[in-house]
Description:
mainly alpha, Type 1 dockerin domain, 3 domains, two-stranded antiparallel sheet, 9 helices, 2% strand
Amino acid sequence: MTTMRTMMNFPPRGLLAVVLMMAGASMTLGHDTDERVDLSPCHLSGTTAGCSTRWCMNLVCEHDQYCCDQSWDRLCVESATVMCSSCGSTTAPCLQSHDGRGCGEQDCCELVCTIDPRCCLESWDSLCAAEAKVLCNEQCPEDFTGNGIIDEHDLAWGGIVLGLPGSRHDIDGNGIRNSLDLQMIYDRFGSCDDFSGGT
Length: 199
């Protein structure tokens, strides 16, 4: 008897869902773009489970575990083609919503689509843009809420976001995400226009 695999079983959307999913004990995704030379490319089917581009493999396997447990078959390749090709293939901004899939900044797009695949499968809607503002904001990295003001809400979000796997937020620039980053958020309370953003 053949069992049909269900494709694209997405988790609920929203920033709280994103934070809970990424902070949860079962979270195995990491934003790791390392190539795995022992596996076949993600756009080719293979006899082994998984594929060579880790972030794409994680994205596909989050929704079809067969691809990482059994083999990287035709369905896995089809999923990878759709899910992993939207990033960087457009010039659309990541921090603004638009009708297309993905956004122009490869790293940010990969990070957002890893936690919210709809952004690379359907459209880069206002929720995708909001997620990008939280996860990818380099102009004013202390502004986790994306409203242009650094305040107590950003301090609270900062405590959560700084601990997320794949977070690029290192506010003080010392290469370590820790309480010094939270102190910098507190020290910069005010408008993003008052600061050059990040150090």
